[in-house]
Amino acid sequence: MSWREEAVDAAGRRLAFAEAGPPPGAPLVFLHGAGGTREVWARLGHGLSRKGRRVLALDLPGHGRSGGPGCRSIEEYAAWVLRFLGAQGLRRPVLAGHSMGGAVALACALSSAEALGGLILLGTGARLRVLDSILQGLRADFARAVDAIVGYSFAPGAPPALAEETRRELLACPPGVAEGDLRACDAFDVMDRLGEVTLPTLVLCGESDALTPSKYSRFLAGRIPGARLAIVEKAGHMLMLERPAQVGEAIAAFLDSLP
Ligand code: COA
To answer: Are 72 and 52 in contact (CB under 8 A)?
Structure first.
């Protein structure tokens, strides 16, 4: 089954996304991380769509084919995502977000749980302080800051081609958008609000994640009522690229468990 590419206007603005898998059915909507695009979900999305899941992967404003300016806060991205879901008429989709995308998914769950059917949080946290050296470096020397981020993104022994792919993706992001993303992450903090999450939740994290350490995921799973936790072996921050089969199995089992 191949990706179908589409674009919609949400509140007068073009948002691009890819879709695969058979409608109808409650879809799974993927949200990429800071400076990324929907391409990061290609392997995992293909695997899940082959198993009969309807999968959509969105380019957030400012990213990939959506283009335009990025947002200045996690809440602003969340408002875009909720408008996109409404514009597409998607009924109670499961939102799956990675890193900054996980923060966006959490913000959607906290503001509009009634619009969603579940939450999958990958390599993320309830608070996402960013190293000052990364924030400063993005402005001073973008390519070098990207190299630093990529250097932290994979478990030891990950194929160099994956790091190269991620480096290319990040370098393609306008520096101002990438910096805005990481500043939005740095300001994000819902550590005191996790008890308010009412959606079925799966938390996934690479055991060697150096950017959002597994401590952050344990915290999420410990505080979100009923949440399940899966720590993925031999994976770092980019677990869906590093271990797509294991991540896909955990997601499929979670989706099967939903009412
Ligand atoms: N979940 C659970 N615990 C968290 C947390 C989260 N999301 N965020 C922070 N904490 C914990 C920290 O582990 C720390 O605990 P400790 O006192 O037991 O060591 C405490 O809360 C205070 O953390 P923080 O205010 O973030 O300060 P810090 O000085 O420990 O760390 C950084 C600041 C930037 C160095 C750190 O957040 C880090 O290394 N981040 C990862 C690198 C990065 O830039 N990631 C990008 C994410 S998009």
So the answer is: no
- Atom in ligand 1 nearest the alpha carbon of residue 132: 34
pTM for the model stands at: 0.95
pLDDT interval class at 1 (50, 70, 90):
very low
Which residues are CB-contacts of 133 (< 8 A; sequence separation ≥ 6)?
148
pLDDT tens per residue across span 236-254: 999 999 999 999 999 999 9
Identify whether the C-beta of residue 78 lies closer than 8 Å to the C-beta of residue 102.
no
Task: Please report where in the chains the tokens 């990438």 appear, as a residue.
Answer: 178
Choose which residue among 129, 179, 218 to substitute to test ligand 1 binding: the one with the highest number of ligand atoms within 8 A of its C-beta: 129
For the beta sheet containing 4-10, the strands, ordered from the edge strand earlier in sequence to the opposite edge, are 4-10, 13-20, 55-58, 28-31, 94-98, 118-122, 201-206, 228-232
Q: Residue 23 above 80 pLDDT?
A: no
Q: Which helix (H) or strand (E) holds 121?
A: strand 118-122
